[in-house]
Design a protein that fits this description.
There is one protein chain. By secondary structure, the protein is an alpha+beta fold. It has a domain at 2-174. It is built from 15 helices and 16 strands. It has helices at residues 67-70, 105-124, 163-174, 191-209, 299-308, 335-341, 374-395, 441-445, 456-475, 492-508, 511-514, 520-540, 549-562, 565-587, 619-641, and strands spanning 2-4, 51-56, 130-136, 139-146, 149-152, 186-188, 237-242, 249-254, 259-260, 270-276, 281-291, 317-322, 355-362, 366-367, 407-409, 415-417. Strands 6, 7, 8, 9, 10, 11, 12 and 13 form an eight-stranded antiparallel sheet that branches. The chain has a five-stranded mixed sheet with strand order 1-5-4-3-2, sandwiched between helices. Helix 7 runs antiparallel to helix 9, helix 7 packs antiparallel against helix 14 (565-587) and helix 12 (520-540) packs antiparallel against helix 14. It is globular and about 85 Å long. The relative contact order is 0.08.
């Protein structure tokens, strides 16, 4: 028996493209359509499929190798718990000297079919594992997939020794759905439940696409239309979700994920629009496989801690936690455990990570680039900084993955800092974490050779890149004069370094300074922040042995300022005040209102149009103004040096 890894984990796979185009399934056989079909694969039924079978005739089409294929007569003795099953490598050889995977065009085709078929079923069903049979060259192999990797047996001659195949089929036919790999908490939805779901999603999509002329434009949720699938390849499921802390549960109806990954191995995060049967409303459902790491808390536990400590602007989790098995333990992957039982059976030098099934249910939120105006953008990022600051003070954790899909808005335009699954305390062993497009330049410069670990200052610089991204996409007067491409410049491993170089260059380039936006307050803020981060990068590059006292003071002060959330929060507060003043000057009494007082915390300065003062005159605001003055002084000192 051999433990191997699947195709490389890639959370950027397009979930909207069918992973295996040759499989065009239908929901169920129809008596009226029993005429001969040109595409026999249409008979494949994703509602009832439990075992996948693949056939290959030629020996060269076998994607795996046997000892006799190399001419070896002897094989190592199998471990006691796998008696009767032999390994592949001869004694004393290593996996890299004797490859287990056959490298021929025919084998590549069959191996791809195995992976794509498993990928298609995992995407359309809710599974923790999957079994496959591969009949090839007079033999049969048994395969098992889960989110950590796959396990495949040696090729068994079922003509000479039919007992293993017969025993497998007999046992498989007597297993319940859970033992076959199906998630026991899921069942096919009834017609009534499916109808409630589809009607609710249609109403939601109509509300997204149509707006009353007297109202603001509706929020947007990219790809939400993919929640419904007209091809009949995605069954409609009912899922029971239970909270780990209270034991309370709910029943959700879902069909197709509208965002996430189609990768077989890894976190396999999938985002759904779900119909909550008890409350009869749509909610957001996140299904994922978190890393099996004793040093990192689950996302559900992090949310509980954040709310218990009064951290603002984090979502309320309606239900969630680890999915439990029949014994009451968190459901975990198996392939990673098999890979470490005995190195003889392991066919990769890469670390095989274990994973735990995890779920969350929350209200539906919208990405940051669905803001209605510049004020919502400024206020949302201001509030996100406040949430980052409070979380760091109360729990000592940082978010580590700030993107336009994680800094979100509720239906009223209030900030929601979502997706804390990568959050944790600064960890020197963790390396760089996050999304390349919004990573700090410090982290990107360190990749891929020796990634620096994530610190609070990196989250604060991600806020700057978020501001630029949304400003360019939504409010720029001339897109061609701005470097929107620096956010998407990535090409595999080298893309990380390229994106970092582009970002760093843009700080010194005229692009960010020459940018023109609809709001003068927004333009001024971006220029100011770009100058601050330019100073930070310049001082960060100075040698630590620099002994000139003035320069040491500059380096010490600026690096401290950059890592202080209050410093950046005050800059956004000042921009909000200027924005409201310019709106009053332009529109007078018809200037757009800010958010209601009830929607803002006491610590959140929401400045009314026409107001000539700050929202707060407390000591913290005074300290913030002092920080701004110190920043201006540092820039003057740098100019004198040059």
């Amino acid at each position: 028996m051999e433990a191997i890894e699947d195709a490389a984990e890639d959370d950027t796979d397009d979930i909207y493209v069918p992973p295996y185009p040759s499989i065009a399934a239908r929901a169920s056989p129809k008596a009226a359509t029993k005429c001969p079909r040109k595409n026999l694969s249409e008979f494949y039924n994703f509602s009832t499929a439990v075992l996948m079978v693949e056939f290959a005739v030629d020996r060269d089409a076998d994607p795996f190798m046997e000892p006799e294929d190399y001419g070896f007569a002897d094989t190592p003795s199998p471990p006691p718990e796998t008696s009767g099953v032999q390994g592949v490598s001869p004694p004393g050889s290593s996996a890299d000297l004797v490859p287990f995977e056959r490298d021929t065009p025919e084998a590549d085709v069959v191996r791809e079919r195995l992976l794509k078929s498993a990928q298609a079923l995992f995407l359309r069903q809710h599974r923790h594992s999957l079994y496959q049979l591969l009949f090839v060259h007079g033999g049969v192999r048994f395969l098992r997939f889960d989110r950590s990797g796959s396990v495949v047996t040696q090729r068994l001659d079922y003509a000479r020794n039919p007992e293993p195949l017969a025993a497998f089929l007999w046992r498989f036919s007597h297993m319940d759905d859970g033992m076959r790999g199906q998630d026991p908490s899921t069942t096919l939805a009834t017609r009534q439940e499916a109808s409630l779901f589809t009607d609710a999603v249609h109403d939601f999509l109509d509300a997204l696409g149509n707006a009353d002329g007297s109202q603001k434009l509706p929020r947007t949720l990219p790809h939400a239309e993919h929640s419904l699938d007209s091809s009949e390849t995605f069954p409609i499921w009912k899922i029971r979700v239970t909270s780990n802390n209270t034991g309370q549960s709910t029943s959700l109806v879902v069909q197709r994920p509208f965002a996430g990954s189609v990768s077989l191995r890894g976190r396999a995060t999938r985002a759904y629009l779900a119909y909550d049967l008890p409350t009869r409303r749509l909610v957001f459902f996140k299904d994922s496989w978190r890393a099996k790491n004793s040093h990192r808390r689950s996302e559900f536990d992090i949310y509980c801690d954040l709310r218990a400590n009064g951290v603002p602007f984090v979502p309320e989790i309606l239900f969630g936690g680890d999915v439990l098995d029949a014994g009451g333990d968190p459901r975990q992957t198996v392939a990673d455990e098999l890979a470490v039982e005995d190195a003889t059976w392991r066919r990769t030098d890469d670390l095989i990570h274990g994973h735990v099934h995890h779920r969350l249910v929350q209200d539906i939120f919208y990405p940051l680039d669905s803001v209605h105006n510049e004020r919502e953008l400024l206020q949302s990022l201001h509030d996100a900084i406040l949430a980052i600051d409070k979380a760091h003070q109360a729990l000592g954790i940082i978010h580590r993955d700030l993107t336009n899909s994680n800094v979100m808005l509720d239906s009223r335009g209030k900030c929601v800092l979502n997706d804390w699954d990568h959050a944790g305390p600064p960890d020197p062993d963790a390396g760089a974490i996050g999304t390349v497009q919004f990573m700090s330049t410090r982290l990107l410069r360190s990749m891929p050779h020796k990634p620096a670990h994530h610190e609070l200052v990196d989250d604060l610089q991600s806020i700057f890149w978020l501001l630029n991204y949304v400003a360019i996409v939504r409010f720029a007067l001339h897109h061609d004069n701005l470097k929107q491409g620096l956010f998407v410049a990535r090409a595999g491993r080298e893309g990380n370094m390229a994106a970092g170089a582009d970002k760093l260059a843009s700080l010194y380039d005229v692009a960010l300074y020459a940018g023109r936006y609809r709001s003068a307050a927004l333009t001024e803020l971006i220029r100011d922040l770009a100058q601050c981060w330019t100073d930070y990068e310049y001082l960060l590059s100075l040698p630590a042995s620099w002994v000139i006292s003035d320069h040491l003071d500059i380096k010490r002060d600026m690096l401290e300022l950059a890592a202080q959330p209050e410093f950046w929060r005050q800059k956004f507060a000042e921009a909000l005040r200027k924005y409201d003043e310019e709106q009053e000057a332009a529109h007078g009494a018809d200037a757009p209102e800010g958010q209601d007082e009830a929607d803002a915390l006491d610590a959140t300065p929401v400045v009314r149009a026409g107001s000539k003062r700050r929202a707060s005159e407390d000591a913290r605001a005074d300290d913030g103004r002092q920080l701004v003055r110190r920043s201006k002084r540092l820039r003057v000192m740098r100019q004198r040096k040059e």
